[in-house]
Design brief:
Layout: E1 13-17, H1 33-38, H2 40-46, E2 50-53, E3 57-58, E4 70-74, H3 81-93, E5 97-102, H4 112-117, E6 131-132, E7 153-156, E8 161-164, H5 179-195, E9 199-202, H6 251-264, E10 269-273, H7 279-286, E11 294-296, H8 308-322, E12 328-331, H9 340-343, H10 352-367, E13 372-376, H11 397-402, H12 446-451, H13 456-467, H14 471-474, E14 488-494, E15 499-505, E16 510-515
Parallel strand pairs: 1-2, 1-13, 2-5, 5-9, 9-10, 10-11, 11-12, 12-13
Antiparallel strand pairs: 3-4, 6-8, 7-8, 14-15, 15-16
Helix pairs in contact: 5-6, 10-13
Bound molecules: beta-D-glucopyranose.
Amino acid sequence: MNTNNLNWWETAIIYQIYPRSFQDSNDDGIGDLPGITSRLEYIANLGVDAIWISPFFKSPQKDFGYDVSDYCDINPEYGTLSDFDALLAKAHKLGLKVMVDIVPAHCSDEHVWFEESRQSRDNPKADWFHWVEPNPDGTPPTNWLSFFGGPAWSWEPLRQQYYLHNFLSSQPNLNHANPAVREAFNDIARFWFDRGVDGFRIDAVHTINADSEPYKNNLANPEFVPGDLPQQQQPFFRQLHDSGQLNQPAIQLFTESFRAVADHYGDRYLMGELHGDDAIKASQTFTAPGRLHATYNFNLLHWVGLDVDGLKDAITKAIGAFNGTGRLSFAFSNHDVPRSATRQMLGLGLQEDQQQAMQLLLLKLESCLIGSTCIYQGEELALQDVQDIPVDKMQDPWGIEFAPVFLGRDTCRTPMVWSENAPNGGFSKANSTWLPIDQRHLQRAGLDEAQRPHSVYNEFAEFLKWRKNQPALMNENTMSEVMGGPNEIIFDRISEQQTLRCLFDFESLTATFTTK
Ligand code: BGC
């Protein structure tokens, strides 16, 4: 009974696939596109509306696909363009929209754009990246640090200049002040829209750099206290980033031109990943008319997890800015943070069945908030993080840099398992897989859980079916303030046809819904 005027993405449940770890089809221990295609029924049967696939473009894989060397081709280990077309056709047949993960802020240093640009100061691509003179004493132009550790500037001897990189030195930042760069991304958008994709998750959109000199130093963050978590102790967090490193006003040159391309194709969706010192305020700027449709909201993604009060506060802050709109997307887990099943249960000493109940509760909670919801592969199985990956098996460059103090992101990226008794849990027939399979995950294997009555997978699937018939959840994006006692989260979702009270009880780990 979805008789509303909302766009599909305003209420969508989006299932995030990390292609390297979803399903291997050619026995090399690495997931691939045909593997995803073979598992689409599992995703469609869950009742989600869309999939978002993390990058599968040509890439040296230094940051596992977020370092792209060709935006219009597939990395050979993931398959071919025709494999992608087959995936897309099957997904559409099953009623799933398909979003791909575009990385406009930086590319790989192996992209031909950078290979050319770094050669000299006067080649045709000379101005496609941020090339800046050293200070008179030879030091980098600013004190900016990279997210992954060390300075955000690296030296290029051929040009006798520094170039900017907010992540690895092999991920040079593109210069979006150059209209040719923006046009190149418009062409990339057309390439994928023409193939039929329904939208883009836009990676790290706040780290696009489009301003030119003078580059200003970041100020110290006066509120910095080294957190308990190794991740929060990194030098990056000792700085404020609003002097020009992040969330530059000129990024909107990119959002506006990219949106114009999307609008030309009709019902397509642009969801920007956006973090930063004041992400809610920035999200409002990024989703102003003519810019992105929505931003991917980090309020529920805190590395350490949130207690019930923390959850209330995080929801309240996001809703305060966006109530009445679908311009935000909530998530509890993704490929960059420890899984919610691990974070939210830290220190609670929950039994196995309580852990599953808690995970289901979180899934229901986020699916009842306004806007879209992103579910990360394995959340529907209540998978937990894998904390004991030996240092010599680690893959994430961020974790390798800081291990053993900070283990990086491998812990949430280990391969999905499908059948307890199949080799490598059904993920791959290879002798070894790119990250180890977690033996504990085998008791929660995907296809097994889809068969087991009352599994988290089946309970969530039931819930999503029910959700589609609730006018208050599907027809309008309006909710009341967040209420409830110390162990409860209560709010109303409100539409013309229905007011639905949603109550999440963190003591009994149950959700109750009443039409008022
Ligand atoms: C992605 C990360 C990636 C980074 C650099 C993000 O925020 O989600 O996985 O390492 O951007 O592209």
